[in-house]
Amino acid sequence: MGDNRGVVYLGPNKVEVQDIDDPKMQSPDGRKIEHGVILKVVSTNICGSDQHMVRGRTTAAPGLVLGHEITGEVFEIGSDVEMVSKGDLVSVPFNVACGRCRTCREQNSGVCLTVNPSRPGGAYGYVDMGGWIGGQSRYVLVPYADFNLLRFPDKAQAMARIRDLTMLTDILPTGFHGAVTAKVGVGSTVYIAGAGPVGLAAAASARILGAAVVMIGDMNPARLAHAKKVGFEPIDLTQHDRLGELIEHVVGIPEVDSFIDAVGFEAKGHGGAEQPAVILNQAMAVTRAAGAIGIPGLYVTEDPGAVDEAGKTGNLSLRFGQGWAKSQSLHTGQTPTLRYNRQLMQAILHGRLPIADIVNATVISLEDAAAGYADFDKGAAKKFVLDPHGLLGAAEAA
């Protein structure tokens, strides 16, 4: 090594690719570990959750190395690693998880109890998630490797589909989790709030789960056009603020079986003003009685840029009574990626889930990351994939 570079958050709306320290076999508090591996990063994606931090909407401190969507080649292994070998190509769940605590053993690895001293759940390169160094870099440490890593069975086959497989780290399992927790099944009518990458991944997941109609609502014309291009029903939220009527134009009634919130706390209402609870209230209004609402969109405990004092501590004004009265189920929280990533890998490898085309995966170099963040912030209908070593470009050219 000795040539590590990473995307560093420097303050609101400013990121820069800098020289960073090589990863070491140690935890954030400095303890030596032998259960980890160091990866040579093959691909690493820009996520909407990263964008929340870059906009200054969290308490992230300058100097944070970003990136939690990581696919890589095993470069170095600790002495307590048995299930992967040097040279293996692997997918890394964005959740840092020990595999040993109660929640991990229950397959709730998104809220591991041991990897973050401040609260349940850990992640790479993310505020308040345990201090683990991010993977928008050339090399990165992954702890508890035997538990966390998903090894691709055929390296050449995987590299041929790497633009798809890079989505296994976060957005595809997150979209799938949203669809599963919204109880999408054969014949379901589904509405998804947000036509960004997670919303599109949720739509792809709803389709593979058998939904009859998949609607995606947004105010961004480029994203709506792309959603239509890849086979989903776009709902233009700039038309008016009566979501039920917009849904009725498509399915004949002003309600759906399943609702997925893929936007989260930076939601905007009709007219463009920020209304962090608007989607959750819409969800309870248009989801049928005994229907289900999946909420993979991010909601934070602290938001310095909130529109009101309550929002700064994650308090939202919800009309919860309507959801209660309709016996709706709501499911929140970080996705336990390991619960889904192996099955989704199989769907990709066997041609069932062309997720790269669905989310419009766009490969750029690591050094161009700042430009990618800027374009994504402007609402580009793309999912930016960083290529730290030029390996994706080489794979696409082959």
Automatic annotation (TrEMBL):
The keyword Metal-binding applies. Its cofactor is Zn(2+). The keyword Zinc applies. GO terms for molecular function: formaldehyde dehydrogenase (NAD+) activity; zinc ion binding. Residues 172-241 form the Alanine dehydrogenase/pyridine nucleotide transhydrogenase NAD(H)-binding domain. PANTHER family: GLUTATHIONE-INDEPENDENT FORMALDEHYDE DEHYDROGENASE, ZINC-TYPE ALCOHOL DEHYDROGENASE-LIKE. This is Formaldehyde dehydrogenase, glutathione-independent. The gene is fdhA.
